[in-house]
Design goal:
Elements (H helix, E strand, L loop, with lengths): L1 E3 L1 H5 L4 E6 L5 E4 L2 E8 L2 E8 L3 E15 L6 E16 L5 E2 L8 E2 L2 E3 H12 L38 H12 L1
Antiparallel strand pairs: 1-10, 2-5, 3-4, 4-6, 5-6, 6-7, 7-8, 9-10
Length: about 170
């Protein structure tokens, strides 16, 4: 979704408040595709400060289904963050941020979906757990250990000792 901000940019010290909805039903990245179950409307405050700075502020509140890092069960995860962008307005009308390239502002049009997508990427949780004491899955059979235990061998052998283990196995056969 794009919104026209020419009315704000045309007048010095003008402010505008716009309420927009997030246009995503799922969030896609290199990590995969994650369904968005809830998304509150975003209220953006856009302000032109002395024809030198463009301020974009707002709060985003999403609920996304993300797999648990240990057992891979879907977890409803709330992602809340604030948008606080300050862009510099240059004499020829091109707007640019001090440190990075902006692809969400083209001319007098602000692409809300691109802006929110970039902010979700920055605020994505590093690790999501279904519960603090999640047991994960069995490395051998793939059983979810939160639901039931499995009969697989739990001890992991040191690969450096594999040759000695082979000697012991030969003696067991005799």
């Amino acid at each position: 979704m794009t919104i026209d901000i020419s009315d704000v940019l045309s007048c010095e010290n003008k402010e505008s408040t716009k309420q927009v909805s997030i246009g995503y039903t799922s969030f896609s990245s290199k990590l995969g595709e994650f369904p968005i179950t809830e998304a509150a409307p975003v209220t953006l405050q856009i302000a032109n400060r002395e024809n030198k700075r463009l301020l974009i502020r707002g709060d985003v509140d999403l609920t996304v289904l993300i797999p648990c890092s240990r057992c891979l069960e879907d977890v409803r995860t709330n992602i809340r963050f604030s948008i606080d962008k300050e862009l510099r307005i240059v004499e020829d009308g091109v707007r640019e941020e001090d440190m990075e390239e902006t692809d969400y502002l083209i001319g007098f049009h602000l692409d809300i979906d691109k802006l929110i997508y970039e902010e979700i990427l920055v605020n994505w949780p590093m690790k999501v757990l279904c519960k603090d004491d999640c047991k994960g899955i069995c490395k051998v059979c793939g059983q979810n250990l939160n639901r039931a235990d499995c009969d697989c061998q739990k001890t992991e052998l040191d690969p450096r000792m594999a040759a000695i283990q082979d000697v012991f196995n030969k003696f067991k056969e005799v």
